[in-house]
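step: validate -> pass
step: tokenize input -> pass
step: predict -> running
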Amino acid sequence: QVQLQESGPGLVKPSQTLSLTCTVSGGSITTNSYYWTWIRQTPGKGMEWIGCIASGGSTYYSPSLKTRTSISRDTSKNQFTLQLNSVTPEDTAVYYCARDFSGWILLDYWGQGTQVTVSS
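step: predict -> pass
step: emit ->
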């Protein structure tokens, strides 16, 4: 059974960098053709795909967030990380990591989600 767990600060100041880590257990992030994904949910916009890192290491980003987003991984720890720069209060959301088994944003395993608030 694959399990994902988000971790990181729950409060970030405006203009700073949001950094979250997803720890994966029950399967390696480097095997098979999976896409390890970050998604967020806001009251106003609903679910928003942020980006992903493929099992081979390629990264893909939402066009609307691309200039501020970086997704990386630490294969020794079986973790992948989201960095979102220059945050504003509009980046306040529940952030989820998930596994996409298709490359078409079909998600079969999710973390429980973590609330991140952007506020001074």
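step: describe -> The two ends are 39 Å apart (CA to CA).
step: cleanup -> pass
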